[in-house]
Amino acid sequence: MATHKSAEKRARQSAKRNARNRSARSALRTALKKFRALLAEKNVEQAAAEYGGLQTTIDKAVTKGVLHANAAARHKSRLHAALKRVQAA
Questions:
Q1: Model-level pTM?
Q2: FRET pair for 88, CA 20 to 30 Å: which of 7, 15, 43, 59?
């Protein structure tokens, strides 16, 4: 346990940031699962409508430092390609 004032403050800050990051990561994962489920169901119209919101969620995760920018670009690219495959079928 932290005994110095500065160490106690760092522990408080760390716990607060951990909770914030966990929340953002959870929201991102939930949005990804929801979108992938729509693709699996071949629900093209709703998946296309959800894609814009999913992009926003991914970009927010990058802004908050939860996701690396290249990882976000990779996610968006692969999800868009999957959406196009389902639309073509």
A1: 0.83
A2: 59
Give dist(CA 69, CA 72) in Å, integer: 5
Spatial contact of 31 and 24, defined as CB atoms under 8 Å apart: no
SS (H, E, C) the chain: CCCCHHHHHHHHHHHHHHHHHHHHHHHHHHHHHHHHHHHHCCCHHHHHHHHHHHHHHHHHHHHCCCCCHHHHHHHHHHHHHHHHHHHHC
CATH code given to domain 5-88: 1.20.58.110
